[in-house]
Design a protein that fits this description.
Blueprint lengths: L2 H10 L5 E3 L9 H15 L23 E3 L5 H8 L5 H6 L21 H15 L4 H10 L1 H16 L9 H20 L7 H20 L2 H15 L11 E7 L6 E8 L2 H4 L4 H13 L12 E7 L2 E11 H7 L3
Parallel strand pairs: 1-2
Antiparallel strand pairs: 3-4, 4-6, 5-6
């Protein structure tokens, strides 16, 4: 796929949604992923494609404001990792990734796998019956309500943004993108064209937002490590001396009576679980940088003692809330 071909593809879809299937079929390696990133940036920025002054008569500059929807078996963050490319914060806000649940978790429909065939059949029939049917009345509705749209969009976006969610400093930027989609859906409902209600719209877009934000905040290698630790904790993994690799601690808030579950992970747990020294350093650094580690006398680690049949030994570990560990694992 040449750069010029991508430009013309974007031009044909100017100001509309651009759909790209199998993003991972771009050339392998850093050059292929960089080409995809250039494609994404040009499609979504008003500056568009700038061309040489010598060809302006035949090929003038283009200006686009298009949203790109793409599918891929490998996530963009994984493609970047394989290509050795670091996605900066600005690119993350444009390249938003929404992971699809596994088949056992419902797949693209977020439903039981047994329902997938019926849903796909119904979707195909609905597409044939309704393709482009709603476009004309939708445009007519927007044109007849232009003086009210900005205010209504702002109100709906604020309602979405006011919903509580624990994120990081970039979460609100991502949240605004989904808030805008929610506002568009609400106006579509007001136009009498939507087959869904406000409750379903909100719950669906909110779930996609959370999935997207977690994918941005927790890279694949970090999520996989957290998932492995939770599974090892579930089966009560132990070392060669029959000592557990994890220690559970529950604290209680005296005012609210709410309880909080903490997990102390032994430093050497990674060795016994064959996760590797690099995984341990990467994972612990991630927890520290994002403020997930519990402080122990101003230190991020804790030393505790265990008794076993050979006597008493001291072990190092770090402590993290179990709910945070589940969130990092995208559970």
């Amino acid at each position: 796929t040449t750069h010029a071909a991508l430009q013309e593809f974007v031009n044909m879809s100017r100001d509309f949604a651009i759909c790209v299937d199998e993003v991972n079929h771009f050339e392998h390696g850093s050059s292929g992923f960089k080409k995809f990133m250039d494609f994404m940036n040009a499609a979504g920025k008003s500056s568009g494609f700038r061309r040489s002054a010598a060809v302006q008569d035949e090929l003038p500059d283009t200006y686009n404001r298009s949203a790109t929807l793409g599918t891929t078996e490998n996530s963009p963050s994984q493609l970047a990792l394989d290509a050795g490319i670091r996605i900066d914060a600005g690119a993350q806000h444009r390249l938003m990734e929404i992971p699809i649940p596994t088949q056992s978790e419902g797949g693209i429909f977020y439903k039981s796998p047994k329902q997938s065939g019926r849903l796909i059949e119904g979707l195909n029939q609905a597409i044939i019956a309704n393709q482009a049917v709603g476009m004309a009345p939708w445009i007519e509705y927007l044109e007849s309500n232009t003086d009210q749209l900005s205010k209504r969009i702002g109100v709906h976006m604020k309602n979405f943004m006011d919903r509580k969610y624990r994120g990081d400093q970039s979460t609100d930027t991502v949240k605004k993108r989904f808030a805008f989609v929610y506002a568009a859906g609400r106006i579509f409902i007001d136009a009498g064209l939507a087959p869904w209600d406000e409750k379903l719209l909100l719950s669906s877009i909110w779930e996609l937002f959370i999935s997207c934000d977690r994918a941005r905040r927790f890279p694949p290698v970090i999520s996989k490590t957290a998932s492995n630790l939770l599974e090892a904790k579930r089966i009560v993994a132990k070392d060669e001396n029959d000592q557990p690799l994890f220690r559970q601690n529950v604290t209680k808030n005296e005012k609210t009576s709410a309880t909080q579950s903490w997990v102390c992970v032994r430093t050497d747990a990674f060795k016994y679980l064959n996760l590797g020294e690099t995984d341990f350093k990467t994972f612990r650094a991630f927890l520290k940088d994002h403020g997930y580690l519990k402080k122990h006398r101003d230190r991020n680690s804790i030393r505790y003692s265990r008794k076993h049949r050979f006597g008493k030994v001291s072990m190092d570990g770090f402590t993290v809330r179990e709910c945070d560990l589940k969130q990092i694992a995208r559970i």
